[in-house]
Amino acid sequence: MSEHDFLKVALAAKEAAAELAPLPRAPKDAALRAIADALVARSAEIVEANAVDVARARENGTSEYMIDRLGLDAGRIEAIAEAVRQVADLPDPVGEVIRGNTLPNGLELRQLRVPLGVIGIIYEGRPNVTVDAAALCLKSGNATLLRGSSSAYSSNTVLVRVMQDALAGTEVPAGAVQLVPGQTRESVKTLMKARGLVDVLIPRGGASLINSVVEESTVPVIETGVGNCHVYVDAEADLDLALEILLNAKVQRPSVCNAAETFLVHAAVADAFVPRALAALAGAGVTVHGDARIASYGEGLGDTVVPVTEEDFGTEYLSLDIAAAVVDSLEDAVAHIRKYGSAHTDAIVTRSVTASRRFVALVDSAAVAVNASTRFTDGGEFGFGAEIGISTQKLHARGPMGLPELTSTKWVYTGEGHLRTSEGTVIASCPNA
Amino acid sequence: MSEHDFLKVALAAKEAAAELAPLPRAPKDAALRAIADALVARSAEIVEANAVDVARARENGTSEYMIDRLGLDAGRIEAIAEAVRQVADLPDPVGEVIRGNTLPNGLELRQLRVPLGVIGIIYEGRPNVTVDAAALCLKSGNATLLRGSSSAYSSNTVLVRVMQDALAGTEVPAGAVQLVPGQTRESVKTLMKARGLVDVLIPRGGASLINSVVEESTVPVIETGVGNCHVYVDAEADLDLALEILLNAKVQRPSVCNAAETFLVHAAVADAFVPRALAALAGAGVTVHGDARIASYGEGLGDTVVPVTEEDFGTEYLSLDIAAAVVDSLEDAVAHIRKYGSAHTDAIVTRSVTASRRFVALVDSAAVAVNASTRFTDGGEFGFGAEIGISTQKLHARGPMGLPELTSTKWVYTGEGHLRTSEGTVIASCPNA
């Protein structure tokens, strides 16, 4: 990709964003439905392009698991289209009045939601993200610059072409959905330095992708996705509950960011809880990376318990592994979470209102769960209807991001000749009003 | 400054931030009042330190205007203390429930305001900012790393010491207010790279300071302050009103970011409006940098009208200068504002509801004024009670920033053994609950 090619699509996106931003809901929903219909109508073409990616992946010795994630067939395309229709059914965040009042001087003040502008998405893996991200951005009035994995480049190229063709028959400019041309690392770098052309970058993928974007980008970034989540079993925990929550948080879907990666047990309940937890985790095929106190309960469980390292405590396994430690107090649990966690989701299991208040107040994470699995930190579960990612940063958006998180705001104030003077507001004389 | 010195204060701030974050309002307000009292009680010491800065400035040939801005006396210190007391009187944004509901599965979901953590402020000029910024951050539960102008280093050192001493007798940790040690450019660079120690950087000052922070910082930045504001006089404008608004926006306080720097006049009213505007601006001592059509009305006004350059249109004068052009349509005015503006505040003067709707929808700025002076874009005028700056970026905060803009959010969900399964939520059995 040349810099010139990139500039061409980025400028097209910027121009489209300016046209798209003031559109009300109806033409945006119509455009989304046109995209959904076109995806289904042109399934064969998409499957054909996808076959090129799949064949190349197979040649490169990609695992069957990854190939399955990459693959598209008519059924999966129908599901992608259905998701787009669901986005059309969601309320439009743009234009929402967030705050507003009449000031003492009579100025009418409103704060409105407006689109961010051009959103760059850098993502790995599945080609459905190409359509999901474009649909969510379009609904919230934003143009999209998509930079997917090079392993899905052929699929993504056709998916974007189908979306652009569908938009050409609607009020939404076709330029509102753009694929960053080229598959090299250079194209990511160019995107990250496109300050002034791109308003926000959202990287979606593994920790190394996200870190490199955060470090190198001059475009503002929303960090997503890395989840080193903890389950803390308090001295006052119901241990049956704790066991089920721990198992659910670890085992139900280990590959996702809201799965648990460490559990901490208060020393007062270690004797009663840890042997049961280890047996249950062993039964579920989980390897426990435990500290010395955890290990002391591990006899007779074969190789279920292995020694934990400092690095383990900071690791997002995304696998059937979990780190574990016994702590002497709630405060020690909090200190551990602050030191090693990724500020995604941390849970406490306790019967005590005071302990839960304290844990919620002291744990500085995007989400804190009380007597519930960490797996609920999710835009769908929270009722957002859709999710572009889970922010683990503090600025702009924190936790699951739905459509409102893809907007900025604008202040509007309306007067009738309001002037500011050192003595306060004066209304200009207006003989012809 | 050594890297070691910086790390010491940054770590102290981070530790203090963790202690400060969960505090409720009362101890924070008490701490702010203790700071106000200490500033007044130790006025003499502060004035003495300030005299060192003033003497050095005078030696360096600094203008009397700048020296006046730098100077502190007992009266000014009393005013600074009074501003701190006013911050104590403001409501506490921390803990506010922004959203919340009971999910269909019974999970109780709340989104709470929480402090950002450690806020770095890089600023120029007046030493009162040292206290203002620290007070606003403290009220919103944040620790502050202050990096003021080296011209005020002696004053800032004593102001921070007085604040820390005052905090030592309160529940707020003294480490919550920190001065970045050293006066070199290196100390700014170290602050900008302190990702993980500093949560947000807010640069306050001129365009070059802000641009360098935005370009170089790996810590998330909130851009503030550059204002290239426009007044557009529509074809349907009341021209008396337009004249007063234009004069107020330009002349009432030319040195501030919400002053007007360009006016645009619809061709349909140019004959009627421009001669009056030029005469009035000339009377107020304003130089008009006009395009050819503006210049055609400038005869007989001496050197009031000078030719405008491309650069003028992009300039924040902060002086008795204004750029001006005649445009053929509202859309051309919007295009001009999009091309040259800084997305701070832009005003339309019009009687037409349709024109005002269109201008508000198309102008992508932090604030849009209708029939009012641009000078109202201000936290005080908006009723925020205080302002840390005016954000001209789209992420996190846009426009005047009060206390809520110095916070992030946290999701809290409370269940009774809620587990997520592929078939939906299951409540764990809890025999002992």
Automatic annotation (TrEMBL), chains A, B:
Catalytic activity, as annotated: L-glutamate 5-semialdehyde + phosphate + NADP(+) = L-glutamyl 5-phosphate + NADPH + H(+)
Ranges of residues in domain Aldehyde dehydrogenase: 4-282
Sorted UniProt keywords: Amino-acid biosynthesis, Cytoplasm, NADP, Oxidoreductase, Proline biosynthesis
A Gene Ontology cellular-component term: cytoplasm
Protein EC: 1.2.1.41
Pathway annotation: Amino-acid biosynthesis; L-proline biosynthesis; L-glutamate 5-semialdehyde from L-glutamate: step 2/2
Chief location bin: cytoplasm
Matching CDD domains: ALDH_F18-19_ProA-GPR (cd07079)
Descriptive protein name: Gamma-glutamyl phosphate reductase
Gene behind the chain: proA
